[in-house]
Write a structure and sequence with these properties.
- The strands form six sheets. Strands 6-9-10-3-11-12 form a six-stranded mixed sheet, sandwiched between helices. Strands 18-21-22-15-23-24 form a six-stranded mixed sheet, sandwiched between helices. A four-stranded antiparallel sheet has the order 2-1-4-5, covered by helices on one side.
- The N and C termini lie far apart (50 Å).
- The protein is globular and about 70 Å long.
- The protein is α/β, with parallel strands linked by helices and 499 residues long.
- It has two domains: 9-241, P-loop containing nucleotide triphosphate hydrolases (Rossmann fold, 3-Layer(aba) Sandwich), CATH 3.40.50; 263-496, Rossmann fold.
- The chain has 18 helices and 24 strands.
Length: 499
């Protein structure tokens, strides 16, 4: 594309070199006023590096940029924001001990006679949050919100900046269908007002729905650009990974109907009021998908099954034996493991090495002769790494890994327990197509090996593509359990929206 966009953003020859690595190699990008450009690529393709350069987070090795027809070279994020360009990070950067309204207002405190105008702050915050479908209170602490609620606060915070160009990095990763619809409606309205967007997402269905143009990166270079958003997903996947991906979802054999369930959940009721009278079962080799809008109680249900959250009533049985509800270790001892939705805070110790993270739940295995040796820890890490295709040196900190590899580590360390029941909550949130396909294959392998698998996901395509049956949750209750041939998107969403 050679035409100069004097009214928007123009990036020419963006290059970023780290010691031993070329993260970005001569990438050009244009974003016109009122346009949404989708940036696609696997983890490591250069999307985040390019976004960080534009937002003033990272200094490019080489680049020429203009913004609104003038040279643009932000010294830092504050400088970029002052010029009208903001970045919403995939990893949320909120202040957990401040309220929702205070987080939204950070940097734009409404003052009256030298004092904070708290009433106006709450009103302004809720004006933005209600546009996103937020249902919480402006005075509650951010730490009390779900991941989806925190993401909505992060987006509202950016909308308060009066930016002319927003970079959205996986903004819907923790949002359900209704919240995503609300966000997209807001984006469309802001586009009509002249705002521009760079949109980074791994959900191809979203890209086709909202993008005006698509730019594909691979290995730090731009490999394709499309002048419209409605492009065949197979073509986009091929461009992203450099090879054809025939099927994203693997074939999983139908479980034997004559074999009884390995997991039986009966009449679970939350002590905190998140769900009531939840019952279901899962047979060996079966994948049960759990669908529902954000806030329906899906995560709370599976946490209770894993003995992580308290119950008023109900029973969980594994192979016919009731599981003690006092501590997560009781469920683990019974063969139930949970891969949590928030892998960074609940699934990993980020400052510890990859090998140490893998060893933590497997200390009996690595403590040969009663002593934990570095050799045994490294051997276990190699075994798990080879089994799941983890990329990275075992001595590197978990924080240095891509999202897909972090998720493989979380899954892999628990697979060493040979669980009878494995629960995965949002297993591919924020993960690129290549890593997503690899994790789907791991899920299939678990089912083929005879484990009972429960997959909770806000991505309806993911639920329908993996599950033998789909359990739909709405307002903390089971609204239906559908066989695969019954589980159409319309049927699932109809039940999920049931009052």
């Amino acid at each position: 594309m050679n035409r100069e966009n004097t009214a928007g953003l123009v990036v020419r020859g963006a290059r970023k070199v780290y010691p031993g690595t070329v993260a970005l190699d001569g990438v050009d990008l244009e974003v016109r006023p009122g346009e949404l450009v989708a940036l696609l690529g696997e983890n490591g393709a250069g999307k985040s590096t390019l976004s960080s350069i534009i937002a003033g987070v990272t200094r490019a090795t080489e680049v020429e940029m203009t913004w609104k027809g003038a040279p643009y070279a932000p010294a830092d994020p504050r400088d970029a924001i002052a010029q009208g360009i903001g970045l919403i990070h995939q990893e949320m950067r909120l202040l957990p001990d401040l309220t929702v309204a205070e987080n939204v207002a950070v940097g734009r405190w409404p003052m009256s006679r030298g004092l904070l105008d708290a009433r106006r702050m709450r009103r302004q915050a809720m004006e933005q949050l209600e546009r996103l479908g937020f249902t919480g209170r402006p005075d509650q602490l951010v730490s009390e919100l779900s991941v989806a609620g925190q993401q909505q606060v992060e987006i509202a915070k950016a909308l308060m900046l009066d930016a002319n160009l927003l970079i959205l990095d996986e903004p819907t990763a923790a949002l359900g269908a209704a919240e995503t619809d609300a966000l997209f409606a807001t984006v469309q309205q802001l586009k009509r007002e002249g705002m521009s967007f760079i949109y980074v997402s791994h959900r191809l269905s979203e890209i086709r729905r909202i993008a005006d143009r698509i730019v594909v990166l691979r290995d730090g270079a731009k490999v394709a650009e499309h002048e419209r958003g409605d492009i065949d997903p197979d073509q986009l996947v091929s461009e992203m990974v450099g090879r054809s991906v025939e099927r994203l979802f693997p074939d999983i054999p139908v479980p034997d109907p004559s074999v009884g369930p390995v997991l039986e959940v009966e009449a679970l009721t939350s002590r905190r009021g998140h769900f009531t009278d939840v019952s279901f079962d899962v047979r060996p080799g079966e994948v049960l998908g759990v669908a529902g809008i954000v806030g329906a109680g899906r995560t709370e249900i599976v946490r209770a099954v894993a003995s992580a959250d308290p119950l008023v009533d109900g029973t969980v049985r594994v192979a016919g034996v009731a599981v003690d509800r006092r501590h997560p270790s009781d469920a683990i001892d019974a063969g139930v493991v949970l891969i949590p939705e928030d892998r960074k805070h609940q699934g990993l110790v980020l400052e510890h090495s990859i090998a140490e993270n893998i060893a933590l739940p497997n200390l009996r295995e690595v403590a040969k002769g009663g002593w934990i040796t570095n050799r045994s820890v490294q051997e276990l890490a190699r075994t798990v790494g080879q089994r799941l295709g983890v990329k990275g040196r075992s001595q590197d900190p978990a924080s240095s890994m891509s999202g897909g590899n972090q998720q493989k580590v979380v899954i892999g360390k628990w697979l060493q327990q040979n669980p009878r029941v494995i629960i995965l909550d949002e297993p591919t949130r924020g993960i690129d197509v290549g890593a997503r396909a690899a994790i789907y294959e791991v899920i299939a392998d678990m089912a083929r090996a005879g484990a009972a698998v429960v997959v909770v996901s806000s991505d309806l395509d993911e639920v329908l593509g993996l599950a033998h049956r789909v359990m739909v949750i709405a307002e903390g209750r089971v609204r239906g359990i559908l066989a695969r041939d019954e589980a159409t998107p319309e049927r699932v969403m109809g039940l999920a929206a049931a009052a």
